[in-house]
Amino acid sequence: MSKRILSVVTCGHRATLEEQDDPIMWLTRAMRGAGTVVDVFLQGNAVSYGVRAQDAGGLSFGERRQTQPPRLAADSAALISGGATVLYAADDARQRGIEPAELIEGLVAVEPSAVPRLFSAYDLILWW
User: Fold this and answer.
1) How sure is the predictor about 63, in pLDDT bands with cuts at 50, 70 and 90?
2) Residue 60 belongs to what domain range?
3) What phi and psi values does residue 36 have, to the nearest 5 degrees?
4) For the chain, how far is it from start to end, CA to CA, in angstroms?
5) Tally of domains in the chain
6) Where are the beta strands (DSSP E) in the chain?
7) How much is the pLDDT for 12?
């Protein structure tokens, strides 16, 4: 029997200046590709991963240009289309002024009172 895993991403934009992906989102897709049942819960600054209109194109530092900018909303959407449940902390989104209409389709809002019930539905919680 496979275990259900919830990957909680709290640190948004980890390594996205050096890479085109958030390593945890990439790892989650790789784990799912290997047959692991893993979903994602976006908290803190990581709730921005679901904002449809974000664009990191044109990012540069002096003469160095980021030629493969992160596409975090697309990465989140790919997880959803691949069968993962991608949830986000509704209160964290509100605190950052992110409206539900700005988010990609398929994200699931979680209110603070529902977090314990959410966690109890999984066998393993990975906190990043």
Assistant:
1) confident
2) 4-127
3) -80, 140
4) 25
5) 1
6) 4-9, 37-42, 60-61, 64-65, 86-89, 108-110, 124-127
7) 75
